[in-house]
């Protein structure tokens, strides 16, 4: 198996079929977790892009415009925009900072770059894990062929001795 993820290489040929199945289950579990993580990070990227697009549409002429403000994911209240160039931006764990539209877009772009970089790292880890699963599958198939050949050889010897 691969060493590119920082883990040690495992000699699959020296493992039993049960051990190979155990390794395969571990790698498939890791693959599932990485796939879920990738989906979540892409959702975050979509939300950041939507936020950046919404902010970039604001202009001084937006003042007084009717908007719907979300209180929850399914509950909104009507409001009017005042000072469209003053935005409260969550910078993490419930902390908010007032920023201009330009500064908000720059902040969202930086966050988006970080999310995209993490997404690329997860994609690479998914590729490595898929290769690991395939390597385990190939090793398991080889073990099965080896076991089958041994059994056939034993049958032929038994037939020759009788």
**Averaged pLDDT, please?**
91
Q: What percent of residues are in strands?
A: 5-15%
Q: What's the Cα radius of gyration?
A: 28 Å
Residue share in helix: 55-70%
Number of helices, counting only DSSP H or I runs of 4 residues or more: 2
Family: Belongs to the prefoldin subunit alpha family.
GO molecular function: unfolded protein binding
Pfam families: Prefoldin
Coiled coil: 17-51
Would you summarize the structure shown here?
This protein is an alpha+beta fold.
Give an overview of the whole structure.
By secondary structure, the chain is an alpha+beta fold. It contains two helices and four strands. The protein has a single domain (17-161), classed as Helix Hairpins (Orthogonal Bundle), CATH 1.10.287.370. The chain has helices at 17-56, 101-161; strands at 66-72, 75-80, 87-92, 95-99. Strands 1-2 form a two-stranded antiparallel ribbon. Strands 3-4 form a two-stranded antiparallel ribbon. Helix 1 runs antiparallel to helix 2 (101-161). The model has no long low-confidence stretch (mean pLDDT 91). 9% of the residues are buried. This is Prefoldin subunit 5. One of its GO terms (molecular function) is unfolded protein binding. Residues 17-51 form a coiled coil. Keywords: Coiled coil.
């Amino acid at each position: 198996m691969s060493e590119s993820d920082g883990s040690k290489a495992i000699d699959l040929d020296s493992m039993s079929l049960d051990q190979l199945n155990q390794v395969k289950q571990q790698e498939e579990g890791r693959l599932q977790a990485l796939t879920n993580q990738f989906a979540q990070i892409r959702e975050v990227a979509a939300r950041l892009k939507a936020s950046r697009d919404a902010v970039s549409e604001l202009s001084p002429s937006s003042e007084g415009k009717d908007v719907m403000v979300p209180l929850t994911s399914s509950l909104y209240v009507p409001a009017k925009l005042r000072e469209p160039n003053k935005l409260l931006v969550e910078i993490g764990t419930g902390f908010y900072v007032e920023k201009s539209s330009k500064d908000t877009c720059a902040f969202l772009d930086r966050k988006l770059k970080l999310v995209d970089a993490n997404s690329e790292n997860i994609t690479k880890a998914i590729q490595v894990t898929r290769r690991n699963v395939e390597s385990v599958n190939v090793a398991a198939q080889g073990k099965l062929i080896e076991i089958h050949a041994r059994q056939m050889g034993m049958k032929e010897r038994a037939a020759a001795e009788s």
